[in-house]
Design a protein that fits this description.
eight-stranded mixed β-sheet; globular
Amino acid sequence: MVNITFPDGGQKQFADNPTGLDVAKSISEGFARNCVAMELNGTLVDLMTPITEDSTVRLITTKDPEALDILRHSASHVMAQAILHIYADAKLTIGPAVEDGFYYDIDMAPVSEDDFSKIESEMAKAVKAKLPFVRREVSKTEALDFYKDEPYKSEMISELDEGTISFYAHGDFTDFCRGPHLPHTGFVKAFKLTKVSGAYWRADQTKAQLQRIYGTAFFDKKELKQYLYLREEAKRRNHRKIGQAMELFSFHDEAPGMPFFHAKGMELWNALLDLWRAEHRLAGYVETKTPIMLNIGLWERSGHMENYRENMYTTTVDEMGYAIKPMNCPGGMLIYGNRPHSYRELPIRAAEVGLVHRHELSGVLAGLFRVRAFHQDDAHLFMTSDQIQDEIIGILKLSERLYGAFGLGFELELSTRPEKSIGTDEQWATATSGLQSALDVYGHAYRLNEGDGAFYGPKIDLHIKDALGRTWQCGTIQLDMSMPERFDLTYVDSDNQRRRPIMIHRTIFGSIERFLGILIEHFAGKFPLWMAPVQAVFLPINDALIAEAQKIEIEFRKAGLRTEIDHRTESLNRKIRDAQLAKIPLILTIGEKEKESGTLAVRTLDGAVRYGVPVEELLQKLQAHVKARRLSLEDLTLT
Ligand SMILES: [Zn+2]
Ligand SMILES: [Zn+2]
């Protein structure tokens, strides 16, 4: 008899070494149909594995988080089989599950996306046949013999220790693999090949170039459809494409990885920074600015020369070594240390939108998402240890207002002391409990990342969620026990003793450049009125009305609105279409009737038009709308 214990503590006895499938069937046939694997005494194994001794068993169904990786990895076997059916001399290497799906690296003639449909229909045959994945164990010698004509597989096997090697077969296809796999290929019914790229064997440029064919799979066709829709939508919203079309920014070989912001991009930038400054002023921050180039002595003192040297741009001036700042911190420390401080001044909240440069390899640069020069919305807060909780809550509330201005939600993550760290147990305990109690009082759920803090202190990371459900880590709140020490920062406490302040670094947008990239994709270029680079375009319906448009435009500009007049001799329909393509929120037409009555025809991007809106009324409503930074023009109720 074999005694099986379930996660809920329940137990069941079986005769004759049951498989996971037998155990599942003993619960119900319907349940068993949704089981794909099991966790046997803590290890994921195939559902068909016989259970030979008393064990704990957790059955993995299609709903469990582990199931998706098993599905996708199994799908890579199905794809490899299909490819061998079509391209007989293709040589297989490895085929893992990855974050969004799976891939297989294969030595074969280049394929393109045009070849996907024939591979997919070959895969569909295996799916339809519901071929079982059958495991068998062989010796290393047998494995090498099996793969004698497969150079990559035999290379991998020859590197393994002696002992048994597991093979998995479905239909006419065998792969050597640790597993586990699905019970049969029928589960792979919702799959799609997604892209192909080049990859080197063992990521080594001197070795063979392989075709890396990517695909994805889901248990449910609806989920696959949703995934593919979001993927297309992300492509459509690509910030580089929209940035080019809207003339927001560009990149040039003369400064790789360093964005050039054009006039319209600067309007966006300034709208963002205006919000940032207004909110920071309300939250009791002051703003500072420090040089972008500082001497090497400073970077030695801050520890950057030791820990960050390879990412820094350096130069020599008047025989003195300098580095361009990769972070704003040391400059901020010098300002704090410039004069003595009293406990009565604390907390000090000093923000700096500082331009930093970090050398990144050219291969990883990606539009505004990964650059070499960017502005961080940094701040350094200096406080006493009993102010930690309130300051953290203050930063969380400020973040909530700033993200909320774009309709972005966020998630929190607390990272605690890593193995390698500076500071005493007591310092870490005070710092970590300060962060934790702030999170508890703030009352927003958070994830705990044990041991993932910086060596100089614990931290809270803020991940925003965009309109496509993608998450981006933007904000970070880091307590630092190292900098105040290195820069010998102090304050005079109420008992006249000099003490070290607690110091926090924090960003909310993170990199302004990257945050703008995220916003471009989040809004698909259709920014809320308060941000839009051009808020309204005037379309006089003939040349005689241009003067009238100019007269009204002056009033709009006096009200702080960003406007343009389309003077071109194009048809009105063409001008409307171009304004829509440029994603200008308000298209204002002026004809003779409008001129006489002092009104405008107001067209919004959703296609709605309102005729005879008095100029005065429109101006007042737009001003109030922009001032309140409303997200949607639907709130702009016009008579
Ligand atoms: Zn496998
Ligand atoms: Zn800092």
